């Protein structure tokens, strides 16, 4: 490993890594060379030098072009990471020199945004008005890929969905309770507590099968002695879910409670009083293990933890309002 590292540090050039990325896109040495403004012979020589450094081929030649093998995929993934980090470095330097501050890219699952991410972003922006902040909302699985590629500095989600969770540092923040919801135009619900079986005449709007919340609903249905509906409407979009629920009274869905409450306050949704049996899932701050966070990212994590600590303080620790002094009764 030490010898390989010394070879890479001594011989590896950024142009070679860019060629790998171009080859992964183009599947053709001729096209990749053209994209890099290189001759095909120069590109071929650069690839040979790379494969010599790793003492193994990185691509397989096939009818569909040059396809990276297992080692090639590994090297390309890290090449993208290096390229992304260098791009971010150049952007940060340019923004700092221009007086605009730096850049922070945050990924977050849907349920963490209203009561966790937004308050911390607002406080960070107030203290660093020249900082450029990007917030990406997506599933944990897709954001982990963006974290690997360096497109995100950190994410608020779950590392457990990764093929290898040990690659990441995970610091838990809070639970993500869920609510069953219908559109605001839904007729009033007749009882205080509703069972999932009582919603049999409703059509479900649910998450795609690869998402954890789909598995949770499947488990709830199983615990209730029900089977999953055969004709659901599947979407990972909160906007689509809410728009569908508003459009028809016979639709029902499962949403993170923090998201549901936001739309309930705006009289767009109604909560269905269903008691779910599954424990709430936990989310937290996920970063690349061994990576170093930028000062804005460190400050954001600090603000997150401060906000969540304040939010979770028991009511008994908050100052109680003073009672007005009792008025004396006038003598008759």
UniProtKB/TrEMBL annotation:
GO molecular function, one term: DNA-binding transcription factor activity
Compositionally biased residues, Basic residues: 319-332
Pfam families: HTH_1, LysR_substrate
UniProt entry keywords in alphabetical sequence: DNA-binding, Transcription, Transcription regulation
PANTHER family given in the database record: HTH-TYPE TRANSCRIPTIONAL REGULATOR YBHD, NITROGEN ASSIMILATION TRANSCRIPTIONAL ACTIVATOR-RELATED
Biased composition (Basic and acidic residues): 309-318
Protein name, entry field: Transcriptional regulator, LysR family
Lineage of the species this protein comes from: Bacteria, Pseudomonadati, Pseudomonadota, Betaproteobacteria, Burkholderiales
GO CC term, one of those recorded: cytosol
Family: Belongs to the LysR transcriptional regulatory family.
InterPro entries named among the record's database cross-references: HTH-type_LysR_regulators, LysR_HTH_N, LysR_subst-bd, WH-like_DNA-bd_sf, WH_DNA-bd_sf
Domain HTH lysR-type: 12-69
